[in-house]
Amino acid sequence: MQGVVDLIPPAWQYPEVTCARISLRSKEFKTPNFVETEWKQTEPIAVNGRRTGTVEVHYLEARPFAFEGPFLKEERDLIHGIAERLGHIIESRNAEATLQKLYARERKLHRRLQVEMQNRIDFTRQLMHELKTPLTSLMATSQLLAEETRNTKLEKLAGYVWEGAASLNSRTDELHDVIRGETGRLKLDLQPLNIERLLASIAEETKPLSTQHGVSIALDVAGSPLPDVIADHVRVRQVMFNLINNACQYASSGKRIAINASRDRTGSAVVIEVRDYGPGIPKDKIGRIFKPGYQVPQRSETPGGLGIGLTLCRMLVELHGGKIWVESTVGKGSSFFFTLPSATPAQ
């Protein structure tokens, strides 16, 4: 700022008797010969619309007056320009300082988030270990008991124990996957995949589940043969089993669950639909359906879960580069759609 002050006198009509001062809040910058006199001109420095200082130019002695006063119009314009430019410079510096503070705060928050995320991962990993070790033992023991015992009642009870342990084990795996997905550590093994063959296999494997809920499963492939998709075989099965399991829980007894597959309009992806003919989802609930922990109210006899199955489905589909969505009508049922990229480009 001192350098700016020193450049002012040479720009005026009588530099040998000109002095200057710039005042900014509690700071002053002035030429060595500065003295306040009656022959002066001042201009306010405004920063963000507020006056924060002034630029002053004084003559040390009287000079011949031109018709516009002791200072020329060009000099009045010049001091105005200096004050305006200084205001802009200060605004820029203030903005830069604020930005640097924000960057520093963001870096600090990012480091803290990384630490918290790692702590969460470590805790989850330890929790998974603590849960899965006894669950694995419980599943093996109950299975062995069911195979070895000749007591029908005991065999049935052992089966219940195995089913409960297997269900908890599955939910533990889902929770672990969601945590990995949230932290960017969930990876896919992408390969060309015959989607028709996979869907037929899944429809067959889930028949016992649908029979248990009193519903049937029907597979319909439009435009067969469908192109192969680029996907992770294990993860696509995981998405399908989640959607079919949900459909079985919500579908009305005696109804069917439809699995439909077709090309999308562009031919660049395959669209898969799992449709149930249950109570449907209210419109005000659809926006939350894929969020962690949220569950649409179920029938009283249907056991609840962690509310992370659809969250995991969304993560897995989006990792494939696909989309997932739901269309539903209350009283008529719901359709869950998701897309997988085709292995062959559209013609």
Give a written overview of the molecule:
The protein is 47% helix and 21% strand. The model has no long low-confidence stretch (mean pLDDT 86). The longest helix has 76 residues, at 73-148. It has helices at 2-7, 73-148, 152-182, 195-205, 207-212, 233-250, 283-286, 309-319, and strands at residues 18-24, 27-30, 40-47, 50-59, 191-193, 216-221, 229-231, 256-263, 269-276, 324-329, 333-341. The chain has 3 domains: 1-100, no CATH class; 119-183; 191-341, Heat Shock Protein 90 (2-Layer Sandwich), CATH 3.30.565. β8 and β9 (269-276) form a beta hairpin. It contains 8 helices and 11 strands. With 347 residues, it is of the alpha+beta class. Strands 6-8-9-11-10 form a 5-stranded mixed β-sheet. Strands 2-1-4-3 form a 4-stranded antiparallel β-sheet. A two-stranded antiparallel sheet has the order 5-7.
Strand content: 15-25%
CATH architecture of the largest domain: 2-Layer Sandwich
Number of domains: 3
Uncertain stretches: none
So, the CATH homologous superfamily of the largest domain?
A: Histidine kinase-like ATPase, C-terminal domain
Q: How many beta strands in the DSSP annotation? A: 11
**Strand count, sense and closure of the main sheet?**
5 strands, mixed
Overall pLDDT confidence: 86
* Head-to-tail CA distance between termini: 67 Å
Order of strands side by side in the largest beta sheet? Answer: 6-8-9-11-10
What is the percent of helical residues? 40-55%
Overall shape: elongated
List SSEs in N-to-C order. Answer: HEEEEHHEHHEEHEEHHEE
The tally of helices reads 8
CATH class of the largest domain: Alpha Beta
Rounded to the nearest angstrom, the radius of gyration is 37 Å
Class computed from helices, strands and strand pairing: alpha+beta
CATH-derived topology of the largest domain: Heat Shock Protein 90
How would you classify the quaternary structure? single chain
